Amino acid sequence: MTAKTHNTIDHVVRSLLCTGCGACAGICRYNAITIRENCRGLLTPVINSKLCIGCGFCFRVCPGQGFDFPAVTKQLFGGYPAHPEIGNFLSIHSGYAVKNEIRKQCQSGGIVSAVLIHALENRIIDGAVVSRWNREDPLNTEVFIARNKDEILSASGSKYSPVPTAQIIGTLKNTPGRFAFVGVSCQVHAIRNAHQMMPELSQKIVFIIGLFCQGTMSHKYLHYALAKAGICAQDVQRFAYRAKEWRGWPGDIRIVGKSGNIEHMPSSDRMCAKPYFTPWRCNLCIDKLNEFADFSVGDCRNPLQYGSKSLKEVNFKGHPGISDIIVRTKAGEGVIKMCLDAGVIELKDSSWQDLLVSAQPSRKKLEFTYFAALARILHIGVPSFNIRYIPKNKILNKKLTRYSSITIVILFHYWLIEIISGTTMYVFAIKSIPIKILAWLNRVREKGLASKNCGPEELIVCRDDEDDIC
Does 335 or 310 have the greater pLDDT score? Predict the structure, then answer.
């Protein structure tokens, strides 16, 4: 590998660390990088060697190769993470958009759309960087700058498909105005990296909304869903991963055909198949709750916030949904307070204990250890975060290693998926496996990873250069 190659994003792609965020293409001053879909249905950068000068900008902005948690935490918040599982925060809430039209159309409680619409209408921002389904090609996503209410609502709802949101850096640096940015954690990491390299960008992006993320899915999942529903891709007019029209929150897959026919697929079908379409790099992410946003938003899955003892009493019973909100910075606090005072959103104070029950972020942080170990065995890339998370309880630590033999099998299972997902028969092969079998395999996977044994308040955080008893 040449020094030039090692200094560019190509090294990240070869190491299987690319998140598909698009930041490398957006920041390149020589237009040497384009984002394309590969054989696995994932977005990856392709470098034009004739235009590339090996400046290293693309590598420096890349969140896939790593993100310095301690350094950025100190810069944004002035110190170490306030909570090992949640990160730094000023306040925690549960809530929803006051207007029913927004809440019903959007994901969870509709907080993100309500905030953006209010910020636009009151000229706090000139536009919001969001993603939506492409109008000409309804099975592909696109990133754009929304400048009015209708455009914000066109971007509502979850899109688990690849979208290079951070590629918008290239547009923002040449576009006058003040903007909000909405993205998952890897995309937010890219924006924070870009702030270091382009200080003027931080003046243009006035606040960042971070979405909770357990992992995305490759574009091939769409073909899987269509095959299960018996619909041809060319016949699709609209696709939604989590539409509320059928049974309410948390939503089901909804496919609208060009002839007006509508097909629904249960959310459980999506969850059972998800591990077989999740990009490898998502398994190496430790930031489910988007710790470096100005405020983070995601599904509220704590039954007490719905006035119930169990989510089974709420799920798919027509409820419009509630969002968890983590306010992290003064900028985020100002935006949320403005919307609350204006009566745009309804909030209820929550606690970090309630949030841990709802989001269970410790599982994501612990699973990094397993997947990183396998990556090292296979001599592929491991991102550097300069931070580690370990269980407080030594007994728990033994639980996490009790299923070591099963864990090895499960991890290699993941690796095999990564290898064969690029074949033409992959979607057909997964479709041929009954949902009950996929559900059983998922239960085995959960047992193998053993992270479900870690409950709230059971992690401590260490720098990579500190001992385990930090």
Answer: 335
Q: How confident is the model at residue 465 (pLDDT cuts 50, 70, 90)?
A: low
* Cis peptide bond upstream of 250, omega within 30: yes
The tokens for 88 are 């730094």
C-alpha distances (whole Å) from 163 to each of 21, 33, 168, 186, 268 are 7, 16, 11, 12, 24
CA–CA dist 311, 437 (Å, integer)? 24
* In the chain, domain spans: 3-61, 69-218+276-359, 362-463
Dihedral over alpha carbons 180, 182, 183, 189 (to 10 degrees): 20
Higher pLDDT, residue 373 or 157: 157
At 309 the three-state DSSP class reads coil
CA 139 – CA 161 distance, rounded (Å): 9
Which secondary-structure segment (H or E) carries 200?
A: helix 199-204
Q: Give the gyration radius of the chain's Cα atoms.
A: 21
The angle at the Cα of 87, spanning 398 to 43, to the nearest 5 degrees, equals 90
Does 3.30.70.20 match the CATH number of domain 3-61? yes
- What are the Cα distances from residue 104, in Å, to 24, 279, 288, 296, 411? 36, 30, 25, 20, 39
Buried b (16+ CB within 10 A) or exposed e, 393-430: eeebbeebeebeeebeebbeebbebbeebeeeebbeeb
Reported as a single tens digit per residue, the pLDDT across 287-334 is 999 999 999 999 999 999 999 989 888 888 889 999 999 999 999 999
Does residue 438 sit in helix, strand or coil? helix
Contact 327, 333 (CB under 8 A): yes
Kindly report the backbone phi and psi dihedral angles of residue 152, in degrees, each rounded to the nearest multiple of 5, phi listed first.
-60, -45
What would the mean pLDDT of 184-206 be, rounded to a whole number? Answer: 96
Sign of CA dihedral 255, 257, 263, 269: negative
Model pLDDT for residues 412-451, shown as the tens digit of each residue: 777 888 889 999 899 999 999 999 999 998 888 777 675 5
pLDDT of 112 reads 98
Predicted confidence (pLDDT) at residue 467 exceeds the cutoff of 60: no
Distance (Å, rounded) from C-alpha 191 to C-alpha 177?
17
Nearest in space to 240 (alpha carbons), one of 157, 153, 152, 140: 157
Compute the C-alpha angle 200/204/208, nearest 5°: 115
